[in-house]
Protein backbone atom coordinates (compact mmCIF):
# COMPACT_ATOMS: atom_id res chain seq x y z
CA UNK A 1 0.00 0.00 0.00
CA UNK A 2 1.25 3.46 -0.92
CA UNK A 3 0.23 6.91 0.20
CA UNK A 4 -0.73 8.76 -2.93
CA UNK A 5 -1.30 12.41 -3.79
CA UNK A 6 -2.90 13.60 -7.00
CA UNK A 7 -2.28 17.26 -7.80
CA UNK A 8 -4.72 19.06 -10.09
CA UNK A 9 -3.16 22.06 -11.80
CA UNK A 10 -5.48 22.63 -14.77
CA UNK A 11 -8.68 24.67 -15.12
CA UNK A 12 -11.72 22.41 -15.49
CA UNK A 13 -12.84 22.70 -19.13
CA UNK A 14 -9.82 23.74 -21.18
CA UNK A 15 -8.65 20.13 -21.56
CA UNK A 16 -9.80 16.66 -20.49
CA UNK A 17 -7.09 16.58 -17.79
CA UNK A 18 -9.41 17.44 -14.89
CA UNK A 19 -11.70 14.60 -15.81
CA UNK A 20 -8.79 12.18 -16.35
CA UNK A 21 -7.52 13.15 -12.93
CA UNK A 22 -10.90 12.46 -11.35
CA UNK A 23 -10.94 8.98 -12.96
CA UNK A 24 -7.48 8.35 -11.49
CA UNK A 25 -8.51 9.47 -8.01
CA UNK A 26 -11.63 7.30 -8.00
CA UNK A 27 -9.70 4.23 -9.17
CA UNK A 28 -7.01 4.66 -6.53
CA UNK A 29 -9.88 5.06 -4.04
CA UNK A 30 -11.65 1.95 -5.33
CA UNK A 31 -8.41 -0.02 -4.77
CA UNK A 32 -8.32 1.28 -1.21
CA UNK A 33 -5.08 3.19 -1.58
CA UNK A 34 -4.97 6.11 0.87
CA UNK A 35 -5.27 9.12 -1.37
CA UNK A 36 -5.16 12.89 -1.03
CA UNK A 37 -6.42 15.13 -3.82
CA UNK A 38 -4.69 18.50 -4.03
CA UNK A 39 -5.76 21.51 -6.10
CA UNK A 40 -3.05 24.02 -7.03
CA UNK A 41 -2.72 26.87 -9.53
CA UNK A 42 -5.59 27.01 -12.02
CA UNK A 43 -6.71 23.65 -10.62
CA UNK A 44 -8.58 25.56 -7.90
CA UNK A 45 -11.14 26.59 -10.54
CA UNK A 46 -12.30 22.94 -10.53
CA UNK A 47 -13.62 23.54 -7.02
CA UNK A 48 -15.99 26.43 -7.76
CA UNK A 49 -19.61 25.54 -7.12
CA UNK A 50 -22.49 26.24 -9.53
CA UNK A 51 -20.61 25.85 -12.80
CA UNK A 52 -22.58 25.20 -15.95
CA UNK A 53 -20.51 22.96 -18.26
CA UNK A 54 -23.60 22.04 -20.29
CA UNK A 55 -23.45 25.55 -21.75
CA UNK A 56 -20.18 24.46 -23.40
CA UNK A 57 -21.60 21.14 -24.51
CA UNK A 58 -19.21 19.53 -22.03
CA UNK A 59 -19.95 16.67 -19.69
CA UNK A 60 -20.37 17.75 -16.08
CA UNK A 61 -17.66 15.72 -14.35
CA UNK A 62 -17.36 18.24 -11.51
CA UNK A 63 -20.53 16.97 -9.86
CA UNK A 64 -18.91 13.50 -9.76
CA UNK A 65 -16.30 14.92 -7.38
CA UNK A 66 -19.01 14.74 -4.76
CA UNK A 67 -18.45 10.95 -4.95
CA UNK A 68 -15.03 11.37 -3.30
CA UNK A 69 -16.56 10.51 0.06
CA UNK A 70 -18.09 7.29 -1.29
CA UNK A 71 -14.60 6.21 -2.32
CA UNK A 72 -13.19 7.11 1.10
CA UNK A 73 -11.28 10.04 -0.37
CA UNK A 74 -11.67 12.39 2.54
CA UNK A 75 -8.45 14.33 2.41
CA UNK A 76 -8.91 17.15 -0.09
CA UNK A 77 -6.52 20.08 -0.03
CA UNK A 78 -6.12 23.30 -1.98
CA UNK A 79 -3.49 26.01 -2.13
CA UNK A 80 -4.78 28.95 -0.13
CA UNK A 81 -2.63 31.50 -1.98
CA UNK A 82 -3.77 30.11 -5.35
CA UNK A 83 -7.40 30.54 -4.27
CA UNK A 84 -6.82 34.08 -3.06
CA UNK A 85 -4.88 35.19 -6.14
CA UNK A 86 -7.64 33.84 -8.41
CA UNK A 87 -10.51 35.25 -6.40
CA UNK A 88 -11.94 31.83 -5.61
CA UNK A 89 -13.72 32.31 -2.28
CA UNK A 90 -13.81 29.50 0.30
CA UNK A 91 -17.58 29.86 0.73
CA UNK A 92 -18.23 29.23 -3.00
CA UNK A 93 -16.72 25.75 -3.19
CA UNK A 94 -18.54 22.58 -4.14
CA UNK A 95 -17.16 20.54 -1.23
CA UNK A 96 -15.37 20.73 2.10
CA UNK A 97 -11.72 21.54 1.49
CA UNK A 98 -8.70 22.12 3.65
CA UNK A 99 -7.04 25.32 2.40
CA UNK A 100 -3.30 25.12 3.08
CA UNK A 101 -0.87 28.03 2.56
CA UNK A 102 1.19 27.28 -0.56
CA UNK A 103 4.39 27.58 1.48
CA UNK A 104 3.35 24.41 3.37
CA UNK A 105 2.47 22.31 0.31
CA UNK A 106 6.06 21.13 -0.21
CA UNK A 107 6.22 19.77 3.32
CA UNK A 108 2.86 18.05 2.79
CA UNK A 109 4.08 16.39 -0.43
CA UNK A 110 7.03 14.89 1.45
CA UNK A 111 4.56 12.67 3.33
CA UNK A 112 3.49 10.69 0.22
CA UNK A 113 5.02 7.68 -1.53
CA UNK A 114 3.73 8.71 -4.97
CA UNK A 115 2.76 12.14 -6.26
CA UNK A 116 0.93 12.34 -9.59
CA UNK A 117 0.60 15.76 -11.21
CA UNK A 118 -2.24 16.29 -13.63
CA UNK B 1 17.66 -1.88 -6.29
CA UNK B 2 14.38 -0.03 -6.58
CA UNK B 3 11.28 -0.77 -8.62
CA UNK B 4 9.91 1.83 -11.05
CA UNK B 5 6.69 2.60 -12.89
CA UNK B 6 6.87 5.19 -15.68
CA UNK B 7 3.84 7.18 -16.84
CA UNK B 8 4.01 8.76 -20.32
CA UNK B 9 1.44 11.53 -20.82
CA UNK B 10 2.65 13.14 -24.05
CA UNK B 11 2.64 12.03 -27.66
CA UNK B 12 5.58 10.32 -29.37
CA UNK B 13 6.16 12.90 -32.09
CA UNK B 14 5.08 16.26 -30.63
CA UNK B 15 6.93 16.25 -27.33
CA UNK B 16 10.53 15.95 -26.20
CA UNK B 17 9.34 14.28 -23.00
CA UNK B 18 8.72 11.08 -24.97
CA UNK B 19 12.47 10.86 -25.67
CA UNK B 20 13.22 11.79 -22.06
CA UNK B 21 10.96 8.96 -20.88
CA UNK B 22 12.74 6.50 -23.17
CA UNK B 23 16.19 7.64 -21.99
CA UNK B 24 15.04 7.41 -18.39
CA UNK B 25 13.58 3.93 -18.91
CA UNK B 26 16.84 2.70 -20.46
CA UNK B 27 18.81 4.18 -17.56
CA UNK B 28 16.57 2.50 -14.98
CA UNK B 29 17.24 -0.88 -16.58
CA UNK B 30 20.94 -0.28 -17.28
CA UNK B 31 21.49 0.66 -13.64
CA UNK B 32 20.10 -2.66 -12.48
CA UNK B 33 16.72 -1.44 -11.25
CA UNK B 34 13.41 -3.18 -11.83
CA UNK B 35 11.24 -1.35 -14.39
CA UNK B 36 7.79 -2.85 -13.73
CA UNK B 37 6.01 -1.21 -16.67
CA UNK B 38 5.59 1.87 -18.82
CA UNK B 39 2.00 3.13 -18.82
CA UNK B 40 0.88 5.26 -21.78
CA UNK B 41 -1.89 7.65 -20.77
CA UNK B 42 -3.57 10.79 -22.17
CA UNK B 43 -1.71 11.87 -25.37
CA UNK B 44 0.88 9.15 -24.63
CA UNK B 45 -1.42 6.58 -26.26
CA UNK B 46 -0.25 7.82 -29.70
CA UNK B 47 2.94 5.81 -29.10
CA UNK B 48 0.91 2.66 -29.83
CA UNK B 49 -0.33 3.78 -33.26
CA UNK B 50 1.08 1.18 -35.66
CA UNK B 51 0.27 3.44 -38.64
CA UNK B 52 2.85 6.02 -37.54
CA UNK B 53 5.49 6.61 -40.20
CA UNK B 54 8.45 8.70 -39.08
CA UNK B 55 11.26 9.36 -41.61
CA UNK B 56 14.37 7.30 -40.91
CA UNK B 57 16.54 10.36 -40.20
CA UNK B 58 14.19 11.59 -37.45
CA UNK B 59 13.88 10.44 -33.87
CA UNK B 60 11.37 7.60 -33.55
CA UNK B 61 10.76 7.07 -29.85
CA UNK B 62 7.91 4.60 -30.40
CA UNK B 63 10.35 2.19 -32.02
CA UNK B 64 12.70 2.79 -29.10
CA UNK B 65 10.03 1.73 -26.61
CA UNK B 66 9.25 -1.34 -28.71
CA UNK B 67 12.95 -2.24 -28.72
CA UNK B 68 12.97 -1.93 -24.92
CA UNK B 69 10.02 -4.33 -24.80
CA UNK B 70 11.77 -6.78 -27.15
CA UNK B 71 15.13 -6.64 -25.31
CA UNK B 72 13.95 -6.63 -21.70
CA UNK B 73 10.29 -7.69 -21.78
CA UNK B 74 9.26 -4.37 -20.21
CA UNK B 75 5.44 -4.23 -20.46
CA UNK B 76 4.18 -1.31 -22.56
CA UNK B 77 0.71 -0.76 -21.10
CA UNK B 78 -1.80 1.21 -23.16
CA UNK B 79 -4.70 2.94 -21.39
CA UNK B 80 -7.60 1.62 -23.45
CA UNK B 81 -10.07 4.38 -22.53
CA UNK B 82 -7.65 7.14 -23.49
CA UNK B 83 -6.69 5.22 -26.65
CA UNK B 84 -10.26 4.66 -27.87
CA UNK B 85 -10.99 8.38 -27.63
CA UNK B 86 -7.96 9.17 -29.80
CA UNK B 87 -8.49 6.62 -32.56
CA UNK B 88 -5.93 4.11 -31.27
CA UNK B 89 -8.09 1.03 -31.56
CA UNK B 90 -7.40 -2.55 -30.52
CA UNK B 91 -8.74 -5.55 -32.36
CA UNK B 92 -11.43 -6.36 -29.81
CA UNK B 93 -12.90 -2.86 -29.86
CA UNK B 94 -12.62 -2.70 -33.63
CA UNK B 95 -15.05 -5.62 -33.89
CA UNK B 96 -17.25 -4.45 -31.03
CA UNK B 97 -17.69 -0.94 -32.45
CA UNK B 98 -17.76 -2.06 -36.12
CA UNK B 99 -14.73 0.09 -36.95
CA UNK B 100 -12.88 -0.54 -40.26
CA UNK B 101 -9.64 -1.72 -38.63
CA UNK B 102 -7.55 -1.67 -35.50
CA UNK B 103 -4.13 -0.02 -35.26
CA UNK B 104 -2.61 -0.90 -31.88
CA UNK B 105 0.97 -2.08 -32.30
CA UNK B 106 1.30 -5.67 -31.01
CA UNK B 107 4.20 -4.69 -28.73
CA UNK B 108 1.68 -2.80 -26.57
CA UNK B 109 -0.63 -4.46 -24.05
CA UNK B 110 -4.14 -3.09 -23.77
CA UNK B 111 -4.74 -2.19 -20.12
CA UNK B 112 -6.66 0.18 -17.92
CA UNK B 113 -6.10 2.50 -15.00
CA UNK B 114 -6.84 -0.45 -12.71
CA UNK B 115 -3.66 -2.24 -13.88
CA UNK B 116 -1.65 0.95 -13.44
CA UNK B 117 -2.98 1.45 -9.90
CA UNK B 118 -2.23 -2.17 -8.98
CA UNK B 119 1.37 -1.79 -10.15
CA UNK B 120 1.74 1.63 -8.45
CA UNK B 121 0.65 0.07 -5.16
CA UNK B 122 3.67 -2.24 -5.15
CA UNK B 123 6.30 -0.05 -6.81
CA UNK B 124 8.89 2.13 -5.07
CA UNK B 125 8.99 4.98 -7.57
CA UNK B 126 6.40 6.40 -9.92
CA UNK B 127 7.83 8.82 -12.49
CA UNK B 128 5.76 10.92 -14.90
CA UNK B 129 6.75 12.37 -18.27
CA UNK B 130 4.34 15.04 -19.47
Give a structural overview.
The complex is a heterodimer of chains A (118) and B (130). With 118 residues, chain A is of the alpha/beta class. Chain A has one domain (4-117): Hypothetical Protein Ychn, Chain: A, CATH 3.40.1260.10. Chain A has 3 helices and 5 strands, in the order E-H-E-E-H-E-H-E. In chain A, helix 2 (80-85) links the parallel strand 3 (75-79) and strand 4. Chain A is globular, with a radius of gyration of 13 Å. The two termini of chain A are 21 Å apart. By secondary structure, chain B is α/β, with parallel strands linked by helices. Chain B is built from 5 helices and 5 strands. In chain B, helix 2 links the parallel strand 2 (34-40) and strand 3 (76-79). The two termini of chain B are 25 Å apart. Classes of the chains: A alpha/beta (118), B alpha/beta (130). Chain A binds chain B through residues 1-2, 4, 16-17, 20, 23-24, 27-28, 31, 33, 114-117, and chain B through 7, 41-42, 81-82, 113-114, 117-118, 120-121, 123, 126, 128, 130.
Strand-helix topology:
The complex is a heterodimer of chains A (118) and B (130).
Chain A: E1 4-8, H1 17-30, E2 35-39, E3 75-79, H2 80-85, E4 98-100, H3 105-109, E5 114-117
Parallel strand pairs in A: 1-2, 1-5, 2-3, 3-4
Chain B: E1 3-8, H1 16-30, E2 34-40, H2 61-72, E3 76-79, H3 80-85, H4 91-96, E4 108-111, H5 113-120, E5 125-129
Parallel strand pairs in B: 1-2, 1-5, 2-3, 3-4
Helix pairs in contact in B: 1-2
Name the poorly predicted regions of chain A.
none
Regarding quaternary structure, what we see is heterodimer
Report the mean per-residue pLDDT of chain A as an integer: 95
Number of strands of chain B: 5
Shape of chain B: globular
Q: Tell me, what is the CATH class of chain B?
A: Alpha Beta
Q: If classified by CATH, what would the architecture of chain A be?
A: 3-Layer(aba) Sandwich
Shape of chain A: globular
What is the ordering of alpha helices and beta strands of chain B?
A: EHEHEHHEHE
Instruction: Determine the number of helices of chain A (DSSP H or I, runs of at least 4 residues).
Output: 3
How far apart the termini of chain B lie comes to: 25 Å
Amino acid sequence: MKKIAIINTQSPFNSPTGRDSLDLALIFGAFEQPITVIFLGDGVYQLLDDQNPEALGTKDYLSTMKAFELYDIEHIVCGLDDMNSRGVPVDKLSMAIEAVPNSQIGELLNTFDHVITM
Amino acid sequence: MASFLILVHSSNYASQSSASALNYAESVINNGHDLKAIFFYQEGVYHANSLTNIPSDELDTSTGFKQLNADHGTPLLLCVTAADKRGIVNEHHEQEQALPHGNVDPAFTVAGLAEMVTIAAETDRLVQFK
